[in-house]
Design brief:
88 residues; globular; 25% strand; binds FE2/S2 (inorganic) cluster; mainly beta
C-alpha cells in the first residue's frame, strides 16, 4: 500500500482531453485522481493508496455522441473537458 503524497492531487494525467464515443445507457468510471494507466478511465489505482480521497466518478451517457473527457482532472464539469487544461 502506497501513501498518498501531500500535494499535487488530483494529478494531471495529460494536458489535453480524450475523445470518446459515448453510447446511450453505457456507464463509464472516469478517473478523478489522475493515476490510472487507462486514462481517462479508472483502473482502480486509487484503491492502492492509503488515505486517497479520490475515487472514480460513474457517468451514464444518455445518447450516442462524441464526448471529450478531461484528463487533466481540473475540469469544473467532470468528466467533460471545460478548457481548464489550458491554464495549467
Ligand atoms: S483536459 Fe481537463 S479541462 Fe481539458
Amino acid at each position: 500500500m502506497d501513501t498518498i503524497p501531500n500535494e499535487g492531487f488530483p494529478k494531471a494525467a495529460k494536458n489535453e482531453p480524450c475523445c470518446v464515443q459515448a453510447e446511450a445507457g453505457k456507464t463509464i468510471a472516469w478517473c478523478t485522481c489522475g493515476l490510472s494507466e487507462k486514462q481517462p478511465f479508472c483502473d482502480g489505482r486509487h484503491k492502492q493508496i492509503e488515505g486517497m480521497p479520490y475515487k472514480s466518478l460513474k457517468v451514464t451517457f444518455e445518447q450516442q455522441e462524441e464526448v471529450w473527457l478531461c484528463q487533466c482532472k481540473q475540469t469544473k464539469n467532470p468528466p467533460y473537458c471545460d478548457g481548464s487544461h489550458r491554464n495549467l
